[in-house]
Amino acid sequence: MSGKLYVVATPIGNLADFSFRAIEVLKQVDLIAAEDTRHARLLLQHYGINKPLISLHQHNEDKASQGLVDRMLAGESIALVSDAGTPLLSDPGLPLVKLAKQQLLEVSPIPGACALIAALSASGMALSRFSFEGFLPRTSSARKNFFQEKLNDTSTWAFYESSHRIQAALEDMLSVFPADHQIVIAREITKLHETIVKDSLANLLLRVQNEENMRKGEFVVIVDGVTVTEESQDISDEEMRILSLLLKQCSIKTAVALAVEITGQRKKRLYQAALDLQEQS
């Protein structure tokens, strides 16, 4: 009989946010693959779990995954954990899960804490549709390009950010988005200094700039979707024809810029039309 892979969510701050089922699974498996074995050992010691640990992180997971799959094919069961939260959500583990699936091994999720879902649930934002963008690019120019692409997103979206870049990320966002655009900053979720605040982009950036504590911890930033009005869809057939021709030869950004110069139409209208045309193609 082949073994099994358990994808186990661990606490993101408060150690009490660990399910009875997760504890039992970790007690029963043959091996635990952890993003950081030192971090995982502290959690295991807290719950009296004594199991072998092996490192599985972003620098070794491509090579290490095959060995773990071989062990499961030989009958061992393995638990995959990250430092905090649900594995694979901006954490290592995807190569292992993909390889296990290819070998027809059973992969079972053991649900629990997730910073993204926790932040969304307390955000006050619309959640019928949302997207998760992971961590933002590291450079300012790349972040601004990303924000430009998200400028006309009509659904709620969220991203992770570190304490080192949260201020710079919000400053780049303000260079693209209106100052009054609504966002939520959630930091240190489930921890002693948990903070979840909803306000305009400009106000929250000011708070991050002025309050040292608002630059500490791990961050989830949630962004309200834009409201598409009838006016934003008021584009003539000739303008649509020009935009369609340009999109066949250029990126969205270039096509929209050229269409603005040719037609004199507003950039936001053409950008939304370009996104709609891409979705239809």
What is this structure's SSE topology?
Layout: E1 4-8, H1 20-28, E2 31-34, H2 37-46, E3 53-55, H3 61-73, E4 78-81, H4 94-102, E5 106-110, H5 115-121, E6 130-135, H6 140-150, E7 156-161, H7 166-174, E8 182-187, E9 195-200, H8 201-210, E10 219-223, H9 237-247, H10 252-263, H11 267-280
Helix pairs in contact: 3-4, 6-7, 7-8, 9-10, 9-11, 10-11
Q: Which features characterize this protein?
A:
11 helices, Methyltransferase, Cobalt-precorrin-4 Transmethylase, Domain 2, five-stranded mixed β-sheet, 3 domains, Cobalt-precorrin-4 Transmethylase, domain 1, 281 residues, five-stranded parallel β-sheet, alpha/beta, 41% helix, 18% strand, single chain
Summarize the structure.
The protein has 281 residues and is an alpha/beta fold.
Structure description:
By secondary structure, the protein is of the alpha/beta class. It has 3 domains: 4-113, Cobalt-precorrin-4 Transmethylase, domain 1 (3-Layer(aba) Sandwich), CATH 3.40.1010; 116-223, Methyltransferase, Cobalt-precorrin-4 Transmethylase, Domain 2 (2-Layer Sandwich), CATH 3.30.950; 231-280. It is built from 11 helices and 10 strands. The longest helix is centred in the C-terminal third of the chain and has 14 residues, at 267-280.
